[in-house]
Specification:
The chain has 313 residues and is an alpha+beta fold. The protein folds into 2 domains: 3-84 and 98-174, no CATH class; 193-312, no CATH class. 37% of the residues lie in helices and 13% in strands. The protein is built from 14 helices and 10 strands. The strands form 4 sheets. Strands 1-2-7-4 form a 4-stranded antiparallel sheet, with helices on both faces. A hairpin with a 2-residue loop joins strand 8 and strand 9. Helix 1 (3-19) runs antiparallel to helix 5. The longest helix is centred in the middle third of the chain and has 20 residues, at 104-123. It is globular. The protein binds iron/sulfur cluster (2 copies). One iron/sulfur cluster (SF4) binds next to helix 7 and helix 10.
């Protein structure tokens, strides 16, 4: 890699950390051959359940150059959201940690926008590109793994040696060359905690997730009824599920985030079981403003609550 790219990488890295990102690296924009084969097989087996969008734009997902013409590099940033240890909800109904605070799309996008402006003003005036957070067909975990930000764990999450897996990934697709990171070795070793802990058997084998059985899918993206085959298995989760990450030893020693926007909202923290059960549409609208839980919608969240509640009876 040439000297200019090295210097540019250093400047971008320094700025990203200054802006509050927890780590950053760069991947070359290219066809993700091995990952594409794996992904296609996953789709063919129907593991994406009702998430039809995952099947669309496969070509773009497997090659960032097809998503934004002229892309040479992908800047990958990580934003930690692991809560502080003392964080807990009053209620037995559980929310995935990523939904504790403000919608991450907004937080991460604001920072990416600043990083992009910095690149254009202070690093490379010719730089052009686009940035995304979960908003385009980008294989961000594969790219981040290629950039050396972690390995794909047996629970299918990206595991960072220092941050664990509770982080958001954002990316900028750029038309300039940068110093690319090197993939690191998988370090799950002989561990299979996540597979053993998944209550619905959604981790059908190491690195294999069947979304049809995953509580995270069933409580958020799923628009239909929740099948009785999962009765008694949700363990209180009404929006998402963190079990296979909570049991991962790499998350135990990871440090908590330093971002007030991701703190557990007092409104969520103080909700009792009765408050959740008696939530009406108007109250949900107020409660979910600017929160990821809005994605489930009022009807979806109530369906989840009833499903979890029925299991207790
Ligand atoms: S999120 Fe929950 S249900 Fe989905 S694979 Fe992990 S442990 Fe299983
Ligand atoms: S729980 Fe164990 S096997 Fe699963 S992702 Fe973590 S280290 Fe890997």
């Amino acid at each position: 890699m040439n000297l200019i790219a090295e210097q540019r990488g250093q400047l971008i890295r320094q700025k990203a950390l200054e802006l509050g990102f927890d780590d950053i690296s760069f991947a070359e924009a290219q066809y993700l051959e091995e990952e594409a084969a794996f992904y296609d097989q996953w789709l063919v087996q129907g593991n994406h359940a009702g998430m039809g969008y995952m099947d669309r734009n496969r070509e773009k997902r497997n090659d960032p150059r097809l998503l934004v013409e002229g892309t040479k590099s992908v800047v990958l940033v990580l934003q930690n959201y692991k809560p502080h240890r003392e964080t807990h909800q009053v209620s037995d109904f559980k929310l995935a940690k990523y939904a504790y605070g403000r919608d991450y799309h907004k937080v991460v996008k604001n920072r990416l926008k600043k990083l992009m402006s910095f690149i254009q003003s202070d690093v490379a005036p010719e730089a052009e590109g686009r940035f995304f957070v979960d908003s385009a067909p980008v294989s961000e975990r594969s790219l981040a793994a290629r950039a050396g930000l972690g390995w794909r764990g047996k629970n299918t999450n990206l595991i960072h040696p220092r941050l664990g897996s509770f982080f958001f990934i954002g990316e900028i697709l750029l038309n300039i060359e940068l110093p690319y990171g090197e993939a690191i070795k998988e370090a799950c070793g002989g561990c299979t905690r996540c597979l053993a802990a998944c209550p619905t058997g959604a981790l059908t084998a190491p690195y294999q997730l069947d979304a049809n059985k995953c509580i995270s899918y069933l409580t958020i993206e799923n628009k239909g009824k929740i099948s009785e085959e999962f009765a008694g298995q949700f363990e209180g989760w009404i929006f998402g599920c963190d079990i296979c990450q909570d049991v991962c030893p790499w998350n135990w020693k990871a440090r908590p985030h330093n971002e007030p926007d991701f703190d557990l909202r007092p409104a969520f923290r103080d909700m009792t079981n009765v408050d959740w059960r008696s939530l009406d549409e108007l109250a949900f609208d107020e409660l979910s403003k600017g929160s990821p839980i809005r994605r489930a919608g009022f009807d979806g969240l109530m369906r989840n609550l009833r499903f979890v509640d029925t299991q207790k009876e």
